[in-house]
Fold these 2 entries.
Entry 1:
Amino acid sequence: MSIYDFAVKDAEGKDVNLSDYKDKVLLVVNTATGCGFTPQYAGLQSLYEKYQAQGFEILDFPCNQFGNQAPGTEEEIVDFCQSRYGVTFRQFAKIEVNGEGEHPLYTYLKEQKGGFLGDKIKWNFTKFLIDRHGNVVERFASTVTPEKIEQPIRELLNV
């Protein structure tokens, strides 16, 4: 099993096979529009602009499990992110990252890289860095800003 075995829904409700991202360096992030960490969207967008041409992709999964901080429809979330932070990376449908409704993608990610709370995702803007072969190489807590993970991304991209 690898990350490429999963399918998810994008913000428009279309099925997306993660195998479409083979040979890319990925940053998988559970996000929210009403969170103290929401300004990280600016840093994520900056990383995307810098490294997308080298094979870097950000997969943004809004999550409303933490304090109801991702209210609204997928369309409203996309509009917010584009208008407020100029987001151009791919956004997906809302997802659950913990509990009974947890998406199998997040079960897999947590099995690969548990956090300091064990397997549970502590909060929004937890980030998983995936190499070009689909290996989960690192997990970053919400408090780790996108700027602080630029170097590991550069290393995986060989830039």
Entry 2:
Amino acid sequence: MNRPYRVVVAKPGLDGHDRGAKVIARALRDAGFEVVYTGLHQTPEQVVQAVVDEDADALGLSLLSGAHLTLVPKIMAQLAAQGRGDVLVVVGGIIPERDVPVLLREGVAEVFTPGAPLPSIGAWLEAALDRREARQAL
């Protein structure tokens, strides 16, 4: 890791299950990331404001409610409108396979579904942020 990257982990929408988000937040923290967890029931506006306030490098969205095709595009558009289109966005949770390409077209960098090994998520995120930082340094 080039430096400690800051990641906001958010639970947008009405989904009330946050155990997975907390597990991810802890795994990323243990891997050396600075992690900010927003808590449950966040609006897209609140999620984006947390990214801006925390000057985050990445945003992890945990979605289990089936609202990913509604919430993720709103969050992506608001990040761009706030001048934070540079934030690396990853999505995790119950995401049907057919929806993964849709999320990737929206600008999501990666989608992690149940069963993804925690170390591989942290390793992927670190490598992606290191690559982004190296490109920006050129």
